[in-house]
Amino acid sequence: xxxxxxxxxxxxxxxxxxxxxxxxxxxxxxxFSNESILTDSPSRDLRKPGDCESILKxxxxxxxxxxxxxxxxxNEKNSARLFYDNILVGINLIEKARQLKIKKxxxxxxxxxxxxxMEIPFKEEEFWSGYPEENNAPYGLAKKILLVQLQSYKKxxxxxxxxxxxxxxxxxxxxxxxxxxxxxxxLIIKFLKAINKGNPNITVWGTGRATRxxxxxxxxxxxxxxxxxxxxxxEPINLGSGRETSIMDLALLIKKITGYKGQIKxxxxxxxxxxxxxxxxxxATSKIGFxxxxxxxxxxxxxxxxxxxxxxx
Length: 313
Prior knowledge:
Mean pLDDT: 91
Number of helices: 10
Number of strands: 12
Oligomer: single chain
Distance between the termini: 48 Å
Order of helices and strands: EHEHEHHEHEEHEEEHEEHEHH
């Protein structure tokens, strides 16, 4: 419990994506030296136990996140690869962490692991109460099984761990690809392109009635590091805003912020994904005093401004 010594090295696996970079920044701000913060290398294949060992052997602690899953279309088209890769990478990393006597292993899970039809807000106690939404199930189940591994390794080997389930994280730096991005960058790109090209309408997947719980990336990173420092037993812990936002309301908000004047159309032939999402964050609040700082509107403004500066439309 409590803060680790500056001499304790934290390996952030997945540290090159936008959430990973924020986590690294938070670690630095908390007093970890630059040399103590390591990131994964593209030259290694973490599906191979030997490569897992080589990347873990100089670390004392691990925060493991991956950036393989994206939007509904990408997840649907790459379901087998998402399942296979996440199962192998996670299982190999945790096993090698056990062998190398890593002090703590923190897994960043996914809201996609929750059952498809859940009462709002999602409570951690209901994590195993049903099957995930079909398009995201292979990825969600692969990440979910790592909780079982962490808990069994805690019981048999004493491996300290934590298991964090973030809501839909968004913010500057997220992957900008209209066809495979998460919903917020995908919509921002659609609106900015439509403005640039003078398109009279844009098309949004699904009915617009599905809801999501959006958490700004900086708020997520701070909470993840706090939980990593203070929690030693792998139990599901939600991180989110605790609020539902429909895709229709999200689209209208982004339309207003970008200044788009055209019409929004909905392609109901495309899937909505999970019908509703909002996380109960009371456990995180009780453990670390968690309370999101960034309102959705403010976070969207920051994200839109980022893409206006960085996108080549």
